[in-house]
Design brief:
The complex is a heterodimer of chains A (142) and B (760). With 142 residues, chain A is mainly alpha-helical. Chain A folds into 2 domains: 1-80, no CATH class; 81-142, Orthogonal Bundle (Hypothetical Protein Yqey, Chain: A, domain1), CATH 1.10.1510. Chain A contains 7 helices and no strands. Chain A has helices at 13-16, 34-38, 51-63, 67-79, 84-94, 102-116, 119-134. The relative contact order of chain A is 0.10. Chain B has 760 residues and is an alpha/beta fold. Chain B is built from 31 helices and 20 strands. Chain B has a 7-stranded mixed beta sheet. A 4-stranded parallel beta sheet of chain B has the order 6-5-4-11. In chain B, helix 8 (131-141) packs across helix 18. The longest helix of chain B is centred in the middle third of the chain and has 21 residues, at 414-434. The chains are: A mainly alpha (142), B alpha/beta (760). The interface between A and B is large, with 64 and 71 residues.
Chain lengths: 142, 760
């Protein structure tokens, strides 16, 4: 293992490698105090997970032999940039019978790729579109 | 005309007795594999098979790639590891089954093989194991070493004050996760805020979820009120999946979405869901669940909630259904998933079936033994009653102590519970007031603190909760507002605890497999891995943990017995004087009947097990002997506390050759001087149900034996009550007090009784 990759020995990161953890606003864990919350300096955004933290957790998961979990963390890292309404919109589109055809899903994949740089998610949606087409899921349900 | 049904009936009466038992409310289904009623051997379960060409899976479990449904596709793409598949699929299933129960085969080796196995292969392997082997394999294969538990916190009124108090109580009992849901779906925000405040009382780190509609649940999580989710359900057939209004891809999307928001998440699946939904494809529960679990691993979920869940009661109606529930939990942990192992929906009306259901998991341990232990009374459980509910909580605590098994819970004192409940309602009341959400008063709070369940509260009603809920959602109130309100109103510790919980998402440590928080630290399968390799390895109950588990209510020791007796000392002293008269002589008077009492009689012990004053017992025996025309003489034995020897020693001193032995706990014997020690004339062994009248009759009979007659023995009617578990500890402790006072070879001491009560 190189120094650039985190492993199981670094877990929990908050304890073993607090130097690697920063909030979205750049604060360290120690700076996320009750006083700072009270003073309005720390907002809910500061208490969100960052893409960096998810990529670090992916490295830890991979080192523990959990490839699929690591992949999920990497997809999630991309998703941190996607606003909540868009996440819910695409989720809705992925449910059976919501998209009338493959096109809607392909558009969504494009949007993820171009607007949010979410390559992994875009590929994932494209794959879903293919499967839905093969399995006849673009049918009216309600 | 004789109405006795044993003479005129045509049915063995035992069936009538059985008809009245709770078990008879349970109904069962005939095994019918063609129609989906099969635990493990479905009519259309495929044989395990896998073909790979050029790294691509071209057929799986008898289905060609071109015919893959969307579940097959997802499993082939995301679960099966082609690098391991060839080796894993080629191994005979029986051999793999043996590895699962071989303590010398490390867990990691088996986890690696599972990545190369198809659902049919996984199902075939675990089907080789009997129930005990499944439990053992589960214990060996579960991911995290330290066991934990999850509890439901809900109530029939969606009363936020009660939710806060009950959440705090659940935290005090040691639940690692608590889960709420609503009677009225729009109350979700109110429920979430109330539980999150309550769960911040006492200690930090209890994870919390609010089970609601998918989109809403994610929004509540985004507002910081919840820290985990487990409502992402998956199904084992395509049609059931579509009727569940999802696909593997939509669920995988949600899985990533939760992680992207720093919220811990597990999937849900379980036996009989497809059967309930009508799309089982004539496949067994185990095979379909193996598909669900392969999907979940492929999606990158860290864990699952399985073991029947809502389908557990239906699964339990078929032959082997409960074994199947255990087997599917085993498949989950074998696939390296965190497992919240069901033991959730109440699968029987029979307490015996319920106790039997929990035992394997209690002794095997599990990441979360119940995926919903009802911490509240059954009627308050908005998920429907759990296998164990608030009513049975102490039974569970005692089972932990019996088996020295860590079920994740810790007994707590009455005082502590009152403290945390009071603190929780005060904290929530302050938050409501500070944020202008609702007005609460002292009557409401007090009724909630003391109430066992919502039937007993005079607090907020569902409509009040709806108004609070709307105000939280519409006012875009977040956990930050709650933390500030708590601090402003002096709930510094709770504000700190809540901030700790929200901060967990910044590092995301608790997103790893099987993560919970213990003593302010995230522990998971990474830093607390299950490394079981036989006796002496794996999770063991530490001395400290053992003393916590042992600390249940109603534990007696010698001091406790003596303390309870000391209360009766002055009462007895006002009734009787025992005057010591020196060594007891042997008499030659043919009417002389001797009563020999035990060493602690009337000096340290003052009541029989039936609660009779020892003075009254002596008075009745004396009166009985005199009624029979003899004289009673009393002797305290110092050399023995044993009933037989008390009686025989007394008989040997008696001029009539007849003596009564009487222990302080009320056990008595009539003896005769020529008999062998344990071959007495009459024995009262059932002290807890022996009445004063019986003792009088005993005296009368002793006198009759002295006269050379053969009286009708005094029979104490018993249906076994006296052998109840309520007596055993006390009896042994009293006897230990007696034997501690006895000295080998000590002379019997004559005592004269002076009865002090009026009328004596």
């Amino acid at each position: 293992m190189t120094n650039d990759t985190r492993g199981t020995e670094d877990f929990p990161l908050a304890e073993k490698r607090p130097d690697l953890i920063r909030s979205q606003g750049g604060r360290s864990l120690d700076e996320l105090t009750l006083d700072a919350v009270d003073a309005g300096e720390v907002t809910l955004d500061d208490l969100r997970i960052t893409p960096d933290a998810l990529m670090l957790q992916a490295e830890v998961a991979r080192d523990a032999g959990r490839e699929a979990l690591a992949d999920n963390f990497e997809r999630a890292a991309e998703m941190t940039a996607i606003p909540q309404p868009v996440i819910m919109e695409i989720y809705e589109l992925l449910r059976p019978g919501r998209a009338p055809s493959k096109d809607k899903l392909m558009e969504a994949a494009d949007m993820l790729r171009t607007r949010y740089g979410a390559e992994r998610m875009a590929t994932f949606i494209t794959e879903a579109a293919d499967v839905y087409e093969q399995r006849g899921l673009f049918t009216f349900r309600f | 005309m004789n109405e006795n049904p044993t003479i005129h009936g045509n049915r063995w009466r035992r069936f009538d007795l059985w008809d009245d038992r709770a078990l008879r409310l349970d109904k069962y289904a005939v095994e019918d594999p063609a129609n989906g009623f099969a635990a493990m051997n479905g009519a259309k379960d495929p044989s395990p098979a896998l073909t790979i060409s050029g790294g691509r899976i071209t057929s799986m479990d008898g289905v060609d790639e071109a015919d893959f449904d969307m579940i097959d596709r997802f499993i082939a793409r995301y679960h099966i590891d082609p690098a391991v598949a060839g080796e894993a699929m080629a191994m005979p299933s029986i051999e793999v089954a043996r590895m699962l129960v071989d303590m010398n085969v490390p867990r990691a080796d088996l986890v690696r093989l599972a990545r190369g196995m198809t659902p049919a292969k996984l199902a075939e392997v675990v089907a080789h194991l009997n129930a005990m082997e499944i439990a053992f394999a589960y214990s060996k294969m579960r991911a995290r070493s330290t066991p934990g538990n999850q509890g439901h916190v809900t109530n029939a009124k969606d009363d936020p004050l009660q939710l806060a108090a009950d959440a705090a109580t659940a935290v005090a009992f040691g639940f690692d996760e608590i889960e709420t849901t609503m009677r009225v779906s729009r109350n979700s925000w109110s429920n979430a805020l109330a539980c999150c405040v309550g769960a911040a009382v006492g200690r930090a780190g209890t994870l919390f979820q609010c089970s609601s509609e998918e989109a809403e649940e994610l929004l509540i999580g985004m507002a910081g009120f919840t820290s985990y989710a487990e409502t992402v359900s998956v199904y084992g057939t395509e049609k059931a999946f579509v009727d569940g209004d999802d696909t593997p891809w939509s669920k995988a999307w949600l899985t990533s979405a939760y992680a992207s928001r720093g919220i811990k998440m597990r999937c849900t699946s379980g036996a009989a869901a497809e059967l309930l939904m009508g799309y089982h494809e004539a496949k067994s529960m185990l095979y379909l669940e193996a598909r669900c679990l392969c999907l979940q691993r492929g999606m990158g979920a860290q864990g699952t909630q399985n073991g029947g869940i809502d389908g557990a009661p239906l699964a339990s109606t078929v032959p082997g259904g409960v074994r199947e529930l255990m087997a599917e939990n085993l498949v989950a942990v074998w696939l390296d998933l965190e497992c919240a192992s069901g033991n959730d929906a109440r699968m029987s009306e029979s307490q015996v079936r319920i106790g039997a259901k929990i035992l394997p998991f209690l002794i095997a341990g599990s990441d979360l033994i119940c995926s919903g232990f009802g911490t509240i009374p059954a009627y308050d459980n908005s998920f429907n009653p759990s296998l164990f509910n608030g009513e049975e909580m102490e039974e569970y605590l005692v089972l932990q102590r019996d088996f020295e098994a860590d079920g994740g819970l810790t007994p707590v004192s009455e005082e502590l519970v009152l403290d945390v409940r009071r603190r929780a309602v005060d904290a929530l009341g302050a938050v409501f007031d500070e944020l202008g959400l609702a007005v609460t008063d002292e009557t409401m709070k007090q009724s909630v603190v003391m109430a066992s369940g919502s039937d007993e509260t005079e607090s907020m009603m569902p409509r009040d909760a709806a108004l609070v809920s709307d105000a939280i959602r519409d006012g875009e109130i977040t956990v930050i507002d709650v933390i500030r309100a708590l601090r402003k109103r002096g709930f510094e510790a709770e504000a700190e605890n809540l901030l700790f919980l929200v901060k967990l998402r910044v590092s995301g440590d608790y997103l790893q497999t099987s993560a919970v928080v213990r003593e302010g630290r995230v522990i998971s399968a990474i830093n607390d891995p299950n490394a079981y390799l036989g006796p002496g390895s794996g999770y063991r109950v530490s001395e400290q943990r053992r003393s916590e588990l042992n600390n249940i209510r109603d534990v007696l020791d010698r001091e406790e017995v003596l303390r309870a007796e000391a209360h009766f000392k002055p009462i007895e002293e006002a009734k009787i004087n025992y005057l010591g008269m020196g060594a007891a002589p042997r008499s030659s008077d043919a009417q002389d009947v001797v009563v020999g009492v035990s060493p602690a009689f009337g000096s340290q012990i003052f009541r029989t097990l039936a609660g009779h004053s020892l003075t009254h017992v002596l008075r009745e025996i004396k009166a009985g002997i005199e009624e029979g025309g003899c004289t009673a003489r009393f002797v305290r034995m110092h050399h023995t506390a044993d009933t037989s020897f008390l009686g025989l020693s007394a008989a040997k001193l008696a001029g009539s050759g007849v003596g009564i032995g009487l222990q302080s706990k009320g056990t008595a014997v009539i003896h005769q001087s020529e008999r062998l020690p344990h071959n007495n004339l009459e024995l009262f062994s059932n002290a807890p149900i022996t009445s004063l009248e019986h003792y009088r009759g005993f005296g009368v009979n002793a006198a009759a034996y002295a006269r050379g007659e053969l009286p009708m023995p005094v029979v104490v009617p018993t249906r076994g009550e006296a052998m109840g578990a309520r007596y055993h500890a006390r009896v042994a402790l009293i006897f230990a007090i007696e034997t501690a006072l006895s000295r080998d070879g000590a002379e019997p001491e004559a005592i004269e009784l002076e009865f002090l009560e009026a009328g004596q």
